[in-house]
Amino acid sequence: MSSWRDLIPGAERASFDALALGIELRQREAYDPARWEARAVVPVTPRLLARRQDDLQLVARPLVRGARDAWIRADATWDTVRRSSGRFDPAQVRWFAELHALAQAMRTTGPFAAPGDTIALDTVESPLLWPHLAAAAELGIPLTAMHAQQSVRLAAGAEARVAIDAEVGGALRLSADVSLDGAPVAAAHVRPLGGSGIFAFALDRDPVPIVLAPVAMPAPLPALLGTDGVEIPRTDAGEFLAEAYPRLARRAPLSVGAGVPAPPAPRPTLEVTVGYTDDDVSYRLEWVYPGSLRFAYDGEDPDAGRLGGAPAADVDPALAERDARAEAQIGERFETAWMAASDLPVVGRARLLDADAAAFTTRVLPAVDVVDEVRVRTSGTVPTFRELRGDPHLRITAVESVDRDWFDLGIVVTIDGRAIPFGTLFSALSRGRTRIKLSDGAWFSLAHPSLQRLRDLLDEAAALDEWETGPRLPRTHLALWAEFEDLADQSEAAVQWRGLARALHDVDQVPAVSTPPDFRAVLRPYQREGLSWLALLHGHRLGGILADDMGLGKTLQLLALIAHTRARGDERPWLVVAPTSVLPTWRDEAARFAPGLRVSVVEATAVRRERTVAAIASAADVVIASYGIVRADAAEFAAPHWSGVVLDEAQFVKNPATRIHRAIAGLSTDAVFAATGTPIENGLDDLWALLSLTAPGLFPSILQFREDYTRAIEQLPTDQPTALSAAAASAHRDKTLARLRRRVRPFLLRRTKDVVASDLPPKQEQEIVVPLAPAHQEVYDRVLQRERQKVLGLLEDLDRQRFIVFRSLTLLRMLALAPGLVDERDAHLGSAKLDVLLDRLVEVAAEGHRALVFSQFTSFLDLAAERLDAAGLAYAHLDGSTARRGEVVEGFREGDAPVFLISLKAGGFGLTLVEAEYVFLLDPWWNPAAENQAVDRAHRIGQTRSVFVYRLIAAGSVEEKVRALQRRKAALFDAVIDDGEAFAASLDADDIRSLLGP
């Protein structure tokens, strides 16, 4: 840093020494053979220039202003200007440095080198010279002549053409036609300045005017400057016009005189050079012009990379020879014909093998050979290729396998009477190939729809098992076999499997099974159909999911199945696994409807039992145990071979990572039946978990199931970025959903209450929106803002922060019920919901009716109990801490208490409470299935009165958003199990944002 002025913008030195670019036209002295010393180079004067105009050179150097205000050399060399420190304007210094760099880096060898501190401008090849010279004026750098008898200027514009004129006698003359600023200039007084400009001079002026101008200088213009032109003798004129003239017309602008024909427009030919070696073929595409000019085709070369515009090694490198428009026209026709004939990519050169070589020879070459201006040249012996064009004929068989749970598939494909080896076909299909060539040269395309569908089915079958000896299917994959049958022209299945497939194709076709003797219940028609379906599956050692709505008698149908198997002579015991609270129900229902069955309830784990499970099973027809006991004593329960296993409230095993799921999977049994009204609670993984127990082998891999089904079905349409992609995603989702339903249908039976509407009384549902008191609303809004800011910052990593997020949501849900649940200091604010509830319950009791009251929060039920005590209303109370659950339930059923307070978790299943006809849901839960189960405690078979359901929703709270979320979850269940559109199932970050949104 040389001065403080350099530190502060605007405080620079007020002035710098001025610089100019001096330009001088020089000439080497005439050659004198009598002199041995080098010829001198001197500035051009009018007198010297008039004598001769050869050996000219244009040089430049920096100049400074002298004492008399003239531009002089002084000490202004290129080096001193570059090394100046504060003497010259930095912008001007950079300009001179860049000009010097252009002259040094891009110079060519001229007739002689520039002496001393000058640079030879006329040898600078870079086109950057011209914008650089034009910028000098903006920087205050004048262009000036270094000699008093010369002047210099830049022209505003210039044009240069090759002139072709006819001469007397039939000869032609080529010359340069040059103009500067619109005025013609004699070509003899013009010289090239590098490869992108010219300089011109005049002979009859003093000082000598020197004009510099940028202009395109394609060959042969540089060679014609400084001359009167070149004569083409009459004897060569024909050859010139036929061969060189078209090339010249594409290379340089022309000025054609009278008597000279307009230049022709020669068309290129696209040449396909093909060489055969054995069964392989190689080809190359080239553009061929008159005069043997060749250029590589603009395509992808797998060996040499991009060929676009790159000339072949043996051609003229001047790309101006090419007619881009003609190439585009011919190339478009060529590629259209190629692509219509085959899916082989159009590349500049390639070596093709096997089926690709056959497709190229039999399809591509005949198609392109008839295209105008395309020529095919071949060498070598063309192999005998024959395309099989007939439709594939498929014959598929399924035979009993050594493994009793699998069937081996036999697949024979015939095309044009030719049997295709399955190994070859399967290998090609699995690798995504588009065609196959057989050993005798015959080949065929794999693009036929039936072959593509065969590939999809084989891929799905292969995902079920690691094939060792060939394709096979598990017995559970009846729907997949049906699709194989639909595809095949002929099919044969094992007798047993065909009968089962036909029977399970539709529920109406299931062979009817009569109610077992001594079974003390009259089954309704739909229950008889359920028994027949269960019996059919069990008879073929298959399980299933009985997903009837709550209250339609799933327990009764499964007890009938057990009695049916005993009546048919199967003496092996059954295992019923159920929640602890439901064990008495199974025991009592069995005693009531099938008293002939010996029932044993395992109520303690092994450490507290005197007998083993095997011993208990040997003396029982039905063993009943809780999920907790089966999980704890998994090894003991795995010892007997059960005739069948019933999983009541099977949502308890929806997580395949739990010990109870693994314990059930380890049981030895012919079939597992899951009884649940909610086979899908949170997502499709729930369904997979149940099917992995009831129909093992149907979807072996959870990861593959998610890839094939979950991703498409649980994707929201709004996730798509455009309308087109949204439509495509919707179509894919619908197709995937339909395929999942077909796969699942034989193993899932669901009937809604609509099928028994005549057997059930009406159910009326009403949503009561309860406004919060002003003080309550103020507390809620304050906490909402605090929790919203906290939660929204955690959603980017929801998996890790899920506990914190749900704790905040639970806090808001409790606050919407009663502030006192969150902070005892706010207990005086009361609860608007309890006010509404108490008013309704007083009215219900006064009219002699009874009501069930459900809540997720036992603490809120406690507050409700306090209000009932204060009002003098009797009630029963059931939650997870209740010690004698059965006694409490019976006490309500047989007593006179008008109200039953029940926690949703403790009383959402396994209870029949038809004594009540009013149901109050105090707070919504994420999953509507849980609420529906609660309602079904009263609205079920056995109810004789209308049921009234009231949902209490706190206005302006998170509860309103939970209701919206419930509707989305219900839609997923309907889409897969019943009907309708599929929506996202899991509670994700977007769900939480909507819950906390305004």
Descriptive notes:
The structure is a single chain. With 998 residues, the protein is of the alpha/beta class. It has six domains: 16-154, no CATH class; 158-256, no CATH class; 269-383; 387-504, no CATH class; 542-717 and 747-754, Tandem AAA-ATPase domain (Rossmann fold); 760-996, P-loop containing nucleotide triphosphate hydrolases (Rossmann fold). It is built from 31 helices and 45 strands. The protein has a seven-stranded parallel β-sheet with strand order 33-34-32-36-38-31-39, sandwiched between helices. Strand 33, helix 16 (613-618) and strand 34 (622-626) form a beta-alpha-beta unit. The longest helix is centred in the last third of the chain and has 22 residues, at 723-744. The radius of gyration is 48 Å and the shape is elongated. Residues 108-114, 301-318, 716-724 and 979-987 have low confidence and may be disordered.
What does the secondary structure layout of this molecule look like, with pairings?
Blueprint: E1 19-28, E2 41-43, H1 46-51, E3 56-65, E4 71-72, H2 78-83, H3 90-105, E5 119-120, H4 129-134, E6 143-145, E7 150-154, E8 158-166, E9 172-180, E10 183-185, E11 190-193, E12 197-201, E13 208-214, H5 221-224, E14 230-232, H6 234-251, E15 254-256, E16 269-277, E17 280-289, E18 293-296, E19 300-301, E20 305-306, H7 324-341, E21 349-352, H8 354-369, E22 374-379, E23 386-387, E24 393-400, E25 406-415, E26 418-420, H9 422-430, E27 435-437, E28 442-445, H10 449-462, E29 472-474, H11 478-487, E30 490-492, H12 495-504, H13 525-539, E31 544-546, H14 554-567, E32 574-578, H15 583-593, E33 599-602, H16 613-618, E34 622-626, H17 627-632, H18 634-637, E35 641-642, E36 644-648, H19 659-665, E37 668-669, E38 672-675, H20 684-694, H21 702-713, H22 723-744, E39 748-749, E40 763-770, H23 774-792, H24 798-817, H25 832-846, E41 851-855, H26 858-871, E42 875-878, H27 885-894, E43 899-903, H28 904-907, E44 918-921, H29 928-935, E45 947-954, H30 958-977, H31 989-996
Parallel strand pairs: 1-6, 7-13, 8-15, 16-22, 23-28, 24-30, 31-38, 31-39, 32-34, 32-36, 33-34, 35-37, 36-38, 40-45, 41-43, 41-44, 42-43, 44-45
Antiparallel strand pairs: 1-2, 1-3, 3-4, 3-5, 8-9, 9-10, 9-14, 11-12, 12-13, 16-17, 17-18, 17-21, 19-20, 24-25, 25-26, 25-29, 27-28
Helix pairs in contact: 7-8, 10-11, 11-12, 13-14, 20-21, 21-22, 23-24, 30-31
